[in-house]
Predict the 3D structure of the following.
Amino acid sequence: MEQPFRILLVDDDEATLYLHRFFLQRHPAAIEVSSEMDGFSALNKIKELLVDDDLPDALLLDLNMPKLSGWELLDALIALNDPRIRQMRIVLISTSANPDDHNRAKAHPLVSSFIAKPLKKDEVNVLIDSLETSA
């Protein structure tokens, strides 16, 4: 049996997590979804997964969250200085219309794309297709 794609959702809004999980799980590919509600919890989860050498295939990350923002989480991931972090496809998902956020995302070494909330079916298809291509 084929291994499922593992995706970690990080967002402080429960309704958004529910909607994104719903779209991801409706995709015909096998997808295992986990979630964290803030950047600090996500950082701790990623550190645990690094110890187990079990990082998710993709990280879908909100920017504006309490405790640790998406940008702060990205900085913390770089500070870990672990090359395995770069194997995760990191997608920023935000309501931000700020052009600075979009430009910063394009220039960030860990970010593969920036998607406006909410995640849509065609964007899920593109994400999963990219994971299948890189597998």
